[in-house]
């Protein structure tokens, strides 16, 4: 009986592996047709062969133990132990190779998993959004950020063009890194603003809370803490701290402008940086006019009217531009 099963197992193995001759395939088909038990034996053999070919889950296993278990199930318990034929050994090697390939493929997939990316762009409106890691951002007009999360490296990277405020969800094992031009800004648990328009000769970082590292690959740069502003000069490739901070640095985010003894040229510059509708001064004589005023989310048309009324200036409009004019300050 043992020799009979060894012989038919060899033939079945050759058929399933595509190596049987036409005569051998006929012998197997005739043997299957003899009885239901023969067909069941063949089906069982084929099931094991197919499972070996379609391995799609990788688990911890002992190859030899697994094949010994298969061996014990190939024939009814009443039969004596069946020795493996050469094709059983081929199947064993094939299954191990398939598992190895599967492991290699999964490892390759993990090592080459593409970044999870998102792009946010603002044109004429302020854009507020939450990034995939839970960090929040506010984009000033004409700004773009590209966010990428690399799960394998545990790294969150942002490319910035323009101006944006970041409230970073801090994660020690997943650094939050912003790149703009040659400059790198790395979060050390903080909220901060980055001003980096391509046409500007400088890049500015203002830290509202926490701490950031502000550097390039060739310059250690600065560590900035809450209330500090750092400036990178593109031409000289140098860093500096600003001692005086613009109180309206974050006005595009908060909608609040606070001017204390500020000259009109500065006021108009800050407003024009946020509002789409522009203000222009009609002559140099009124540039130095001083004003103390706070605006909280007012419309631009209301703001220019308040300025004109306070300083006794004339107000006209050409297209989308408001023009302030006068011969003095409050005369």
From N to C, what is the helix and strand string? HHHHHEEEEEEEEEEEEEHEHEEHEE
Any idea of the CATH topology of the largest domain?
Answer: Jelly Rolls
Calculate Rg over CA atoms.
37 Å
Helix/strand/pairing class, anyone? alpha+beta
Task: Break the fold down into its secondary structure elements and pairings.
Elements: H1 2-16, H2 22-34, H3 36-53, H4 63-73, H5 86-111, E1 116-122, E2 127-130, E3 136-139, E4 143-150, E5 155-167, E6 176-180, E7 183-187, E8 191-196, E9 202-209, E10 211-216, E11 219-225, E12 229-233, E13 238-242, H6 251-254, E14 256-263, H7 264-272, E15 278-281, E16 290-296, H8 300-311, E17 314-318, E18 321-325
Parallel strand pairs: 5-6, 15-18
Antiparallel strand pairs: 1-4, 2-3, 3-5, 4-5, 5-8, 6-7, 7-10, 8-9, 9-12, 10-11, 12-13, 14-16, 17-18
Helix pairs in contact: 1-2, 1-3, 1-5, 2-3
């Amino acid at each position: 009986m043992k020799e009979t099963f060894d012989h038919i197992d060899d033939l079945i193995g050759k058929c399933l592996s595509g190596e049987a001759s036409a005569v051998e395939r006929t012998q197997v088909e005739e043997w299957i047709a003899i009885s239901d038990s023969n067909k069941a034996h063949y089906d069982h053999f084929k099931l094991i062969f197919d499972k070996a070919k379609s391995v799609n889950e990788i688990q911890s296993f002992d190859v030899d133990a697994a094949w010994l278990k298969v061996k014990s199930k190939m024939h009814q318990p009443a039969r004596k132990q069946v020795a493996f034929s050469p094709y059983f050994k081929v199947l064993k090697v094939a299954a191990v190779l398939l598992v190895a390939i599967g492991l290699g493929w999964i490892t390759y997939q993990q090592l080459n998993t593409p970044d999870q990316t998102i792009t946010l762009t603002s044109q004429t409106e302020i854009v507020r959004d939450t990034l995939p890691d839970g960090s929040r951002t506010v984009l000033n007009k004409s700004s773009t950020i590209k966010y990428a999360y690399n799960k394998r490296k545990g790294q969150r990277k942002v490319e910035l063009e323009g101006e944006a405020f970041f409230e970073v969800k801090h994660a020690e094992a997943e650094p939050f890194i912003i790149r703009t031009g040659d400059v790198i800004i790395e979060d050390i648990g903080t909220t901060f603003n980055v001003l980096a328009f391509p046409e500007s000769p400088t890049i500015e970082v203002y830290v509202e809370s926490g701490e950031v590292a502000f550097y390039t690959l060739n310059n250690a740069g600065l560590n900035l803490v809450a209330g500090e502003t750092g400036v990178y000069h593109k031409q000289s490739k140098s860093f500096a701290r600003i001692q005086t901070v613009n109180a309206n640095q974050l006005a595009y985010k908060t909608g609040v402008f606070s001017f204390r003894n500020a000259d009109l040229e500065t006021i108009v510059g800050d407003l024009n940086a946020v509002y789409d509708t522009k203000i222009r001064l009609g002559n140099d004589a009124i540039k130095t006019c001083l004003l103390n005023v706070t605006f909280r989310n007012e419309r631009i048309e209301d703001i220019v009217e308040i300025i004109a009324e306070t300083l006794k200036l004339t107000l006209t409009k050409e297209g989308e531009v408001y023009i302030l004019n006068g011969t003095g300050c409050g005369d």
